[in-house]
Every structure is written in C-alpha cells, then in structure tokens.
Amino acid sequence: MQTHATTRNAAALSRRGFLLGAGGIGAGLALAGCAPLGSSSSRPETITFYVSKPEVIGYFDEVIAKFHDSQSRIRVIRDSTSNMSANFVRNRPPDLGCLNYNYAMVSFVEHGALSDLSDLPEKDTINPDLWPLMKQTADYPGRTSVLPYSVTAASVIYNKQIFADQGIDVPTTWSEFRDVCERLTKAGITPMYGTYKDNWTIAQGMFDYSVGGMLDLQQTFAALDREGTKVGTSSSVSFEKDFAAPVDRMVDLLQWHQKGAASRGYGDGNLAFAQGKAAMYLQGPWALGEIAKSNKDIDLGTFPFPATDDAADNKVRVNVDLGLWIPEASRKKEAAREFLSFLMSPAVNDKYNADNNGFGVRKDSPPASNPALRGMQDSYDQAKFSLGASQLIPAEIPVANYLQSIAFGGAPAPQLRTLDGDWARLALRTAA
Amino acid sequence: MATTTTESVTTAGSRRRGGAAPRLQSGRRGGAGLRTKRSRTDPLFLVFLIPTLLLFTLAITLPAVMGIVLSFTDSVGFGDFRFIGLTNYVAVFSDPAILQAYLFTIGFSLVTVLVVNAVAFLLAIALTSKVRGKITLRAVFVLPMVISGIVIAYVFSFLFANSLPALATTLGFAPLEQSILANPDLAWIAIVVVTAWQAIPSTLLIYIAGVLSIPAEVYEASALDGASAWRQLVSITAPLTAGYILINLVIGFKNFLNSYDIIVGLTDGGPGTSTTSVAMSIFKGFNGGDYAYQMANATIFFVIAVVIAVIQLRATRGKAAL
Amino acid sequence: MTIQAPLQPGTTATGTIRSVDADRNAGRRGERFNWPVTVVLVLCTLSVLVPLYVTITMAFKTTSQAVDGNAFSLPAPFSVDGFVQAWQLTDFPRAFGVSVLVAAITVVGTILLASFTAYAIARNWDRRLFRWSFFYLLAAMFLPFPVLALSQVKLTGLAHLDNPFGVAILHVMFQLSFSVLLFTAFLRSIPAELEESARIDGASTGQVFWRLVFPLLAPMSATVGIFAFLASWNDFVMPSLITSNPALQTLPVLQQMFQTQFSNNYNVSFASYLMAMAPAIIVYLFTQRWVMAGVTQGAIK
Predict the structure, then answer these.
(1) pLDDT of B7 strictly over 50
(2) Torsion of CA A175, A180, A182, A186, to 10 degrees
(3) CA nearest to C263 within chain A
(4) In CATH terms, are A2-152+320-374 and A153-317+387-431 the same topology?
(5) Is position C105 within any domain?
(6) Cβ of A263 and B88 within 8 Å?
(7) Residue C263 forms beta bridges with which residues?
C-alpha cells in the first residue's frame, strides 16, 4: 500500500537523513576546514549556505554535491549552527539563507537587511497566492526579500481506520464535526489527543485553526496595527472583542480531548496517536514522521478544520517552512543567486517537497506526494489557506502561554485582555 | 572552655578582615605584612594586576557598557538605531508581565537558596561524620554538577509527568495524581526541587571544606562539657562556617536569580506564565524587535542583583569572616 | 596529602585539620560507624543515580524504543545506533577536539591569571587600587549575560576573535571573578613568614611567587580548575554566538541540533550527552582528591 511505503519512507528518510547528515556534516565541515588547494588562477568562489532544519540537512548536502558536480566555479559550504542575530551583528551573514519564514525573520526583513530578489526569473514562477502571505509576516516596501521554497499545511490528522470502523465521514461543517466527536465519545474513543504541556501545540492547533477559519487575518491584524497603542476594551478592534468567538470555539474543543492532556507533551501525543489512542490529532505534517517512528503502518488522512457551519470557510493553516534569501551584506550575491536558481529548479524543489511533506510553491508544482496530505490539496490549490495567527503575534508576547492557561481551564476573557494590554504596550515601545 | 575557643576564633577572624589591621600583628598572617618592608609597592604586583584588569575591562565591562547604552535606544541588536532616552525604562516599570517575572524569580530564588543551603549543610555534616563509604558517597553526591541542564530537564520532566503521578495514584495521594508541572500553583515546587538538585553539589563541596576546617579539639572539649550533638551544631559548627555560609548564600542567590535552562526545560514558563523567570523574559526579546527593551530590563536586573548582594553582606557583617 | 606550610602553634585557629585521609583512617581503626545516617545517605544517592540510570539506558535504545515513553525500561534490543548517529552528526572527534582546546585554554588561563591577580590583591590589600579592583571584579559577577552578549559578538568580530580562541578568552574572563574570590580566601591562610624568610634570603617577588606561593596554591588551583573546566565544557550559548565558522564549533552547540520542537531522537541526543559527560566525569574523579584537599586547606584561617 502506498501509505505504508510513504510513511515508511518518511521514517527511513528521517533515519537516512540523519545518517546522510552525518556524512554530510562531516563533509561540510571538512570542506570548511580545508584551504582551497592549488594555485589555479580561477579559484572557485565559496559561498555560505545556511540551513538549520535537522531533518533536511542530509538532503541539502546531496543537493550541494550535485551542484558541485554540475559546475566548478562555485563551492558551497553549509552552515547549520551559527546564530543568525550574531551573524548580522558581526556583519557577516551567510550568502544564502534557507530558513523558516516567521517572526524570527521580521527584524531582518523590516530593517532592509535582505537584498531584493524581484529581478530573478524564479520570482515569476511562484504561486501568486503566496505573496500576500509573505507580506503579512514581514515586508520591506519595494522589495521581494524572501522567495518561498516550501510551504507546509496543517490541519486535522485523522486515523482512517477508526473513522472507517465507526462509519464516520470526514466532517465539513462545525455541526458535523461536533457530531463526529459525540459519536466517538459514545463509542469510547477519545476524539482528539491533546498535548497541552507543550504550549506551542495549543497555539499551532486549536487556536490557529479556529482563528484562521473564523477571522480575516489580514484585515484583523492590519486593524490591530493601526490601533496600535489604543488597543483595549474601548478600541474598535481588539483581541477581547474579535478573538472571543474563535477562542470560544477552542474552549468547545477542550471537552473532547483526553483527561490529563495538561501533562502530555508533543512526544507523548505522537506516540499515543500512533498507538491508536485517539481518532484525531491537530498537528502539522512534521508530526507524520514522528508518528511513523512508532507505527509505520498507520493509515492517516487530513481534512481542514471546519470552524464554522459554512463549508466555504474551511481553511488550512499554512506557513512558509523554508524561504530563501540573500543578505545585502553578502559580497557574493551573484554566486549565491546561481545556487538559488539551482535550488529553485523544478527537479530539486519538487523532490524536496515530495520527500518532506511540503506543498510546492510554484504555479506548476505537482501535488503533495504523501497520500496523508491529499485531504488538504484542494484547499491549497484553491488558496483556501491562512497563516497561523499565533505566528503573526510578535514573539515578545507569550501568546502560547496565555492559551495554555485557557486550555488548563482558565477563563478566556482575562487572557484576551492581557493580550490587548501587551499589544498596546508593544506598540508604544516600537513606535517611539 | 568551648566558648573560649570559639571566641578566640572569631576574634582572630575579625582581626584579620580588612586592611586596617595593625602592621606588626598582621605580619603573622597573610594580608598586609609585606608592605611594612617597603615604602612603595613592588611593580611586579602591578604587572600581575593591571594587564588582567585591562583585558577584563575590554572583555566584560566594555560590552556591558555598550549593552547598557543600547538600552536607551530602539536597537534590534544590529543595524541603525535612535536614542529614545528613558522610554524603555518607563515601559519596563509599567509592564505587569515583567513585574510578575521579578516577583516569581525573587521568591523562587529565596526558597531555593534556603533549601539548597539547608540540605547541603546537613549533607556536609553527615558526610564528614562517621559513615561508611564516605569517599564514594561524596563522589556520588557531587555527580549532578557534571550533568548538562538539558538532560536534567528531560529526565525530571518525565519523572514528574509519569512516575510521580503513578506513585501518587498507587498511594492514593490525590494532589500529586496529576503532573505537578501542570498545576499553576505547585509547578514552582518542581522547579525548586530540580534546581536544588543541580546546585547542591557545588554548595556541598564548600560546606565540607568548612566543616573539615573546624578542629576536632573544639568538639572534644564541648563533649567534655556535656554538649549534645544539636548544641554542637548550633554553637560550634554554624558560627565557624559562617563565612562559607555567606559565600554560598550570596553566590547561590545570584545564580538562582538567573535561572533559565531548567525552567525552560520543565515548564517553559508555564502553566500560563506562572513560572516565567526574568532571564526568560530577557532572552525572549533577544532575537528580535524587543532587544533594547530587554536590555533595559537586564540593566535593572543587574542593579537589583547587586543591591540584594550588598544587603546580604551588610546584614551579616559582624558575624562572618570573609 | 601533607600540608607543606608549617603552622605556628597557637596562632592558627585550627589545630588538627581533619583531612580526608584522617577520616579514612578512622574507619580502618575500627571506630563505630553511624549506620542510621549511612543508610539515609545511601537512600539519598538514589536521587542522583536514578536520573543517571535513565540517561544511560536511553542512550542504548533504538529510535522506536526511545520514543515509547517508558523511561525506565532497559534497552531491548540493545543498540549503539544512538552513539553511531551522534558520533557522525556532530563530527564528534572534531567537535570534541575543539571543546578540549577551549576548555584547556580556559583552565590554564583562569588558574594563571586568577592566581596572579589574587596574589597581588591579597598582598596589597591596604592599597586602594588593589582593594577596589577586588570589588570591581566581584561586582562584575552580577552582570547578566544578555547585557554583554551581542556587544561581545561585535567586538570579537572586529578583533578577529570570532573563533574558539575568542571563546576561550571570554570563558577565562567570566571565570575570573569567582576564581579570584577563591584564591584570595585561600591566600589568607598562607603565612607571610614564609615569604618574608624567602625575601631575606634574597628572592624577588617573582621568585617568591613562582617558587613558593604558586606550588602552595596547588589544591585551590585544582578547585578553580575544575569549576572553570565544567563551566567551559558545558557552555553552549556563548560559543554559538561567538564562533562564526561552523567547522570550529564546540560539542554542546552541535548537540543542540538534536533539540528541535518537532522531532525527538532521544537515543541519539542522550548518547551524545553521555559522550560529552564522560570526560567531565573523568576529569572530576581524577582531580577529586586535589579538590577535597584544596577546599580543606582553603579553610585554614
């Protein structure tokens, strides 16, 4: 069965990736340590390529090797450990960066530290629906600072076997979802597995899915930015007012999680779900590999979380898992651009996404290869997606901690009011 | 007779402190003895001192000053910035999250430093009394010092989330049946336990030294006078190790104020924000837009830590020979 | 472990120092042991041994067993897979070598600089410059690391010290305050008569220090050394910020790559931590005798 092969592949990749990463890191380090030999007049140009996602280090080392085979003017050294802030402080950032595009990138983008890539031919091949997403996270006017490389989509992962045994169809509205949960509970099956100990899973799952399905994130956050220091009980837009409904939805979900979710973490959740202890799991594709470590044969599917009773509202939560950028401070931009083009070539880009449960970023990208992800393909193709709201709240505000209080049984309103207060205070300090 | 010995010890100690000791008498110990022979200092002493001091200033003081200066700007750690005066400091004082972090951190540090020192002191006494296999036992108790914080956090995380509840359920002890880490009112206890576990070894080493330095004759004399073990502890051991107690209290408190690794590993500041420490707040702002703001926070933190240390030293000035 | 400094009877507050060896001799003489306390202590060692047990067993598990949530189970099957992966992923020999280099420089540098400084301060306590230097160093101990961090990054970058040497120098500087505190306390116990008699014989200050005082400092040097070693060996925040060349990174920083939110390879990461802990434990056991004697002799008032 294909699922079997693919999830086994995921596990094997994880393993292979690590072992390759081993040789790769060794090779990368050896390359870095060796001085270029010979005194040929055309010394190869060396560029630093930064990628820190551990699962894919091995993959990129293979790509680098292929790049070296295809030409000899440019050598690529992979860096996975240096601290990015420190690199910029020293004014020696990597020549090409390949990072998760989230709040960590905001200060680099908004300070104009990244060069403009809009003149690259690859830019036009990118799926235009992705640009608004990129802008929402961070923007430097007049520049394309980052090119998306891989998008991950997260929604509800479900155990197909359990659904089949119970004769349950994939729900497309909130009422249907509630019914599904009720039926599962009556049958003595935990509807969803909760891992509240790791507060990021609450933010990533229940919160982001509910908010994404019920709010227009772009408008809401733009309005919050405009209100700035005035955000609070009496402002026209606030967390307390606008996020009340989605957070109530989140509170509704709590009753269908297992008891004791407060002391379970991400690792416990992966294990339990792999053992069939729950029917659904609100996690992203990164969990698929972890689940496979404990159960290679499990048959999984996905569907967008139906936050409202209008099926047209259903969205999946996406984030740009990897984005490519070249800093202004790089002195080897041309060489970096060549390697960037190599990475963005369909063969390389598609294989990356196929192997790593990502969705393609180009207009002509093939669909996601892991059958488990098929349930989200339509949503992705029709651009029925949104960023995670928790990723749009700056890191200085510990929103995941506040959500954890709610998951532990705290009242939502005070936490939302705290969010308002934090937002207003942050606006005050950054506006100065 | 025991009292006489103690008196002579403390007098000797206090006589030794500070540079005001009369030259002739202090010549018997270290201290200012050598200065009596010359009217100016041997320049070699300056060679010993100045280069190190300069290097230290360059490596530590200068960056600190730079960091503090940045707290008066809107810097994100790199690139351009503007001076914005006291805005960040005003913002710190009006941020309830930071206030809560300080309250938690200071309260937690207070409890931990007392627990660590009480346990380490008792252990030191136990490990210097007539027990079997003392050397091996001492080696074992110092082991936690060597283990990295991340391993400790993982292991204890597991123990608190799984083993302890299982044990409590078997024994029917209700409050602990859910993981203590998930309880907003009790999670701090778990953090105290783990922090103490890691901090006791180094404190223990210093206390063992202190206890071993007390001459056996003092105890023998007091035993002849009929002093009980408890009396010996209170009237002999404690006063004579006062200097070491002070060092451990001051440095221990400072270390616990800076707690980061263990808290992140166990609760990540949760449940909610009930166990967020000041160091965690500071690091959050580190890689991003709140850099200058958290520099202001860190500067205030430095001042508070120094003030507390000075208070500790002043309060015990008469009793401890440092 | 003989104490070389002759003690003036009646002037020292301590008579017989109860050294480690004396305790052992007590046992051999057949004196009564305090068994209840012994038992309590042995039970308390469980709190140390249990976490150690978990660390060791986890390192020898396979990936699938490592995530099965049962920390106390024995490895079944027994697998060195974790070690193999950890070895390769961190390029263990190289990272180990870099860590050893940094730690060695830190230890030697700290002992030398701290002992010089402490000697100068202790012997010139009545001079303002020296006294204030002592309090200056002590106050700096309270500086929180984040205040210094990025500025240090900038300065080391400018000075071409964004490499293990820069890391080692910074480690020495961070250890300086505490080490000077320890050495100064210990130096008070070395009677000035020794140095005075050496000077009468014509020795210069330098010779007095090198030939006489420094050897006497050996036990405290061991103590300072072990604290400096551990601080440097386990440190990962500073090297991750300071060293720009990934090929020259220390072991703890590379071990961080096992720690991601999304992926748990406990057997690999614990194997890696075990491999990193082993030298620290060995160094500690080796110098343990010196450490004990060091803190003991430092107590001479």
Answers:
(1) no
(2) 160
(3) A290
(4) yes
(5) yes
(6) no
(7) C260
Summarised one tens digit per residue, pLDDT across range A29-69 is 444 444 444 444 468 899 999 998 888 888 899 999 999 99
CATH number for the segment(s) A153-317+387-431: 3.40.190.10
Reply yes or no on whether the pLDDT at A240 is more than 90. yes
**A407/chain B closest Cα distance in angstroms:** 9
- Size of the A and B interface in Cβ pairs below 8 Å: 107
B:290-319 residues touching chain A, CB 8 A cutoff: 290, 293
Determine the distance in angstroms separating the CA of A91 from the nearest CA of chain B, rounded to an integer.
Answer: 8
Interchain CB distance below 8 Å, B146 and C155: no
> Which superfamily, per CATH, for A2-152+320-374?
Periplasmic binding protein-like II (3.40.190.10)
Percentage, residues of chain A above pLDDT 90: 74
CB nearest C257 (choices: A15, A28, A81): A81
Domain map (residue ranges) of chain A: 2-152+320-374, 153-317+387-431
Nearest Cα of chain A lies from the Cα of C96 at a distance, in angstroms, of 13
- The pairing of strands A74-79 and A45-51 is parallel
Top residue of C84, C244, C253, C272 to mutate, by most chain A CBs within 10 Å, is C244
Distance between A260 CA and the closest CA of chain C, angstroms: 15
pLDDT, position A192: 96
Residues A111, B182: C-beta atoms closer than 8 Å: no
- Residue whose entry in the numeric block shows the structure tokens 């005035």: A230
What is the secondary structure of A128-149 as a DSSP string? TTHHHHHHHH---TT----EEE
Q: What is the pLDDT of residue B284?
A: 79
CATH fold for the domain made of B95-315: MetI-like fold (1.10.3720)
Segments forming the whole domain that contains residue C108: 86-297
Share of chain A above pLDDT 70, in %: 90
Q: Do A432 and B84 touch (CB under 8 A)?
A: yes
Instruction: Specify if C34 maps to a domain.
Output: no
* Residues of B in Cβ contact (< 8 Å) with C227: 202
Q: Is C50 among the domain residues?
A: no
Q: Inter-chain contact C262–A268, Cβ cutoff 8 Å? A: no
Number of domains in chain C: 1
Beta bridge partners of A154: A317
Interatomic CA distance for residues C203 and A368, integer angstroms: 82
The residue ranges of every structural domain in chain B are 95-315
Residue A70 has pLDDT above 80, yes or no: yes
Closest partner residue to A89 among C154, C247, C257, by Cβ?
Answer: C154
The three-class DSSP label of residue C129 is: helix
Residues of B in contact with A84 (CB under 8 A): 287
The CATH number of residue C241's host domain is: 1.10.3720.10
Cβ–Cβ of C240/A82 closer than 8 Å? yes
C227 within domain boundaries: yes
**What's the rounded Cα separation, in Å, for the pair A396 and A101?**
17
pTM of the model: 0.83
Q: Do A85 and B78 touch (CB under 8 A)?
A: yes
Which is nearest to B145 in space by CA: B189, B197, B206?
A: B197
Contacts of A432 in chain B (CB under 8 A): 74, 84, 87
SS3 at position C16: coil
Lowest-confidence range among A195-199, B135-139, B229-233?
Answer: B135-139
Angle formed by the axes of helices A2-33 and A57-70, to 10°?
60
Tens digits of residue pLDDT in C34-49 = 788 888 888 888 888 8
Look up tokens 């000791």; give the residue: B21
d(CA A341, CA C35) in angstroms, rounded, equals 74
3-state secondary structure A170-234: CCCCHHHHHHHHHHHHHCCCEEECCCCCCHHHHHHHHHHHHHHHHCCHHHHHHHHHHHHHHCCCC
Q: Given an 8 Å threshold on Cβ–Cβ distance, is C258 in contact with A54?
A: yes
